[in-house]
Amino acid sequence: MEQEEQFKQRLESIAAVEALGGRGYAKKISRTHTSAEIIRDFDALESSGAVVFVAGRMKTARKMGKASFADLWDGDGRIQVYIKIDNLGESGYEMFKLLDLGDMVGVSGKVFKTRTGEITIIAETIQLLAKCLHPLPEKWHGLTDVEIRYRQRYVDLISNPEVKQVFETRIKIIRWIREFLQERGFIEVETPMMQALPGGASARPFKTHHNALDIDLYLRVAPELYLKRLIVGGFERVFEINRNFRNEGISTRHNPEFTMLELYQAYADFKDMMEITEAVISDAALAALGSTTLTYQGAEINLATPWKRIRWTEAFKEFAGEDIVPGMSRDELAAVCKRRGIDVDPDSNSGALMDKLFGELVEPCLVQPTFVYDYPTEISPLAMQRDDDPELTERFELFICNFEIANAFSELADPMEQMRRFEKQQALRDAGDAEAHSIDRDFVRALQFGMPPTGGLGIGIDRLIMILTDSASIRDVILFPLLRPAVAGAAATESDPSESPAE
To answer: Residue 56: in which H helix or E strand, if any?
Structure first.
């Protein structure tokens, strides 16, 4: 009821502003400076007596009779404004008194420094640019506000400058990654986000329908198969910073819509991809943080290269004391799960149990950057097999802070072997595995034209940003994460912004 009353009062104040010659929502204004420019150029502005015009959101105001102070926040930061009736006149001061915290305000005047040394504008004119009809949160950090932060990201950004800094860091890192790759001869390309067949990763896709063509389409789970078509076509180094969609659970590490970097390099293999991965992530940390040492959720992480490398089977031995090897039957793997107290889906196949065991027993131990390589062929349908052991592939995954950051292969180029792998995947799909690959015959046809030896790499951008900004949840680094529809009157809790088990 209090919020409704404040909304009503703020709405009514627009009429009072208009009675003084103002507007509730102004047209274009001619801003001369940002807050940062005034601070940077203060000496010249003060000595010249120049009048500046600034605009921003009024977040604080200290009203003291006929003289007051207010803080305006723009895209660059904060600037203090001194409002005095002698400078504004009675009408202008009445206009100021009608302003509420959260309003977008324009101020013109000269600059000076207060006795405490703070750069300030002496307001000569003041105007309302846009009325804020809802009061800003007075106290933001609290259990009941977590869901609101994600649902109303605009309020989150207004109220918490540190949130904006996270996304500014995200933008900086993505821009730096582009420059890093372009300097090394990679070209940025775009591939379809709607595909006739979902492929490139083991994941459940989102399905849609094209009315004009009367065909079902899928939102891409990965751009891999299209990017490798480009390698066949003669592009030797390509990358895409892409949006992928996977119809899976939502958690602190999973969002159904997420951002990945995928790149492919002809005449390279998975070892070359290790070198690129080390360089791009450690250099991104330097660009964003100025250091390769950081703290993530209390743990000190050292991104200085080289990073630890360990074989998939050895990782089970070192961190779990288990002998898990390629070729083990489903029953054998299920027995290990039972012994270790790990729930087993009765419909899961041996490959799914391998992944389950790795996620439960090994991943929690991988805090420092670690390359796990030599993955089983059974769970790597797009990777090239090792010459000395066809049950293993030239594939690695990178883990930092207990979760996967990157995945890379020496790409499978043999069309006959690729078709055999697709057929095995299709059999799993026919048996009910919704995450198994479909047979992409056109991709096999592309390989029949000859793909050069190729290394491929995918890096999860959202998870990388989590680590580099010390963010506990993936929702903290995605501006508008997917949430369960809000229910009127429902209480929000930290564990209930659409949280469901990750698949």
So the answer is: strand 52-64
Residue 302: partners with Cβ closer than 8 Å, 6 or more residues away: 292, 293, 368, 369
Q: What are phi and psi of 399, to 5 degrees?
A: -120, 135
Average pLDDT over residues 124-150: 78
Q: Which domains does the chain have, with CATH numbers?
A: 2-130 (2.40.50.140), 161-307+368-474 (3.30.930.10)
Please count the other Cβ atoms lying within 10 Å of the Cβ belonging to residue 257: 15
What is the longest distance spanned by two Cα atoms in the chain?
88
Q: Is 302 helix (H, G, I), strand (E, B) or coil?
A: strand
Which amino acid, one-letter code, is at 237? Answer: R
- Region 193-215 average pLDDT: 93
Interstrand relation of 237-245 and 308-311 (parallel, antiparallel or unpaired)? unpaired
What pLDDT shows up at residue 144? 42
Size of the chain, expressed as the number of residues it contains: 503
Q: What percent of the chain has pLDDT over 70?
A: 95
The reported pTM is 0.89
- 123: which 2 tokens? 């307001």
Residue 119 CA to residue 113 CA, distance in Å, equals 5
How far, in Å, CA of 16 to CA of 7, rounded?
A: 15
Report the Cα–Cα distance between both ends of the chain, in Å, rounded. 42
Q: Is the pLDDT of residue 500 over 70?
A: no
